[in-house]
Design brief:
By secondary structure, the chain is of the alpha/beta class. It contains 14 helices and 15 strands. It has a six-stranded mixed beta sheet. A five-stranded mixed beta sheet has the order 5-4-3-14-15. α4 packs parallel to α13.
């Protein structure tokens, strides 16, 4: 296990040691990261034969696709700040016969990622079970790190959530309560910090296209969804500026207006939630919050191609584009996106 920790710096203590807040807490310049979802070793065979519960006994196709993803990421220049995998790392549910082999094969592929590109793991329903228990979550954490945590990169605050606790926590209500309390505390911390943006990663989307859509397997139940959307929207953060908060506060004090401080220094809401789970590209918005649903590295359930999402973070906005593995391997990041990274 010690050797695996060296290869994969995992989240421990609800944070990611690859990024130190002292180094990453301040905005410096635009950067980008790569988001992937659902390599889900074993699903392609299971889906093809129509037996998703028992048919995942082969995953050679997923190995090749994930190897292609790793190779495509490794050749990018400049390097992404990190590579986040938004859940369903493997198909085998907890306790199923091929789970250990699938986990090991995925680790064997991911160990080839450039050591300067940290991996960020997000738990999915196949990783901890559709109805998770303390035991299944503990097993996931031993292999892949904490199931929820936060970290800073370049003045941007990232939150990783265990969305299965919002889907069905009936067998571990105390763990959902712990995550809820932790999330409130993290948002309170962020409110006191100077951050350009706040971004969330989770496996299950809040919604697929419309915040008011009906609940099904691929989104969160409507009341849970609404509570989270409002919490994300109402969170308020101090803006990070080139001259720092002191100048902002001084300017606000010089303006004879009771709302001057608010208008100058506050940034409403979490900007974006990135997820997977749907095995198709989708998304929409709720007020100022963007919901981004990315298709899979592995099995496709729609018309999209196996791919990854390139996410550019600038001082003003978050720009993203889903790229097929073939295009990213052969062409890299397109010029329009590269120009955003080069901005000062």
């Amino acid at each position: 296990m010690a050797e695996e920790r060296d290869v994969f710096p995992r989240a421990r203590g609800r944070t990611l040691s690859a990024f130190r807040e002292d180094d990453e807490g301040q905005w410096k310049a635009p950067f980008y990261f790569i988001q992937g979802a659902d390599p889900q070793f074993g699903l392609m065979k299971a889906w093809a034969i129509g037996d998703c519960d028992n048919g995942g006994d082969e995953w050679e196709e997923e190995i090749k696709l994930t190897e292609q993803a790793v190779q495509a990421i490794n050749q990018l220049n400049p390097k992404p700040k990190f590579f986040v995998l938004c859940g369903d790392l493997i198909h085998g549910m907890p306790g199923t016969q091929w789970r250990k082999d699938q986990e090991q094969d995925l680790k064997n592929v991911l160990k080839n990622i450039d050591q300067d590109i940290p991996l960020v793991f997000v738990s999915g329903n196949h990783d901890i079970g559709n109805v998770p228990t303390p035991e299944t979550i503990d097993d996931y954490c031993k292999h892949w790190g904490d199931d929820y945590f936060s970290f800073w990169v370049g003045g941007v605050f990232f939150l990783v959530l265990n969305s299965q606790l919002y889907f069905d926590s009936s067998k571990c209500p105390e763990l959902k309560q712990a995550q809820d309390e932790w999330l409130d505390a993290q948002l309170a911390v962020a409110e006191k910090q100077t951050c350009k943006h706040v971004i969330v990663f989770q496996h299950i989307p809040l919604f697929l296209q419309n915040p008011d859509e009906d609940h099904d397997y691929f989104n969160l139940e409507k009341s849970v969804r609404q509570e989270l959307m409002e919490k994300f929207h109402k969170a308020v953060f101090f803006k990070s500026t080139r001259n720092g908060m002191e100048l902002l506060l001084q300017a606000a004090c010089m303006v004879d207006c009771p709302t001057a401080l608010e208008s100058l220094a506050l940034e409403p809401g979490i900007k974006a939630v990135f997820s997977g789970h749907y095995h198709r590209n989708a998304g929409g918005s709720y007020k100022d919050l963007e919901m981004v649903v990315s298709s899979a590295i592995g099995c496709q359930l729609g018309e999209d191609t196996h791919g990854l999402r390139v996410v550019i973070v600038t001082a003003e906005k978050i720009v993203h584009r889903y790229c097929s593995l073939n295009d990213l391997s052969s062409q890299g990041i397109e010029k329009e996106l590269m120009d955003l990274i080069k901005q000062n």
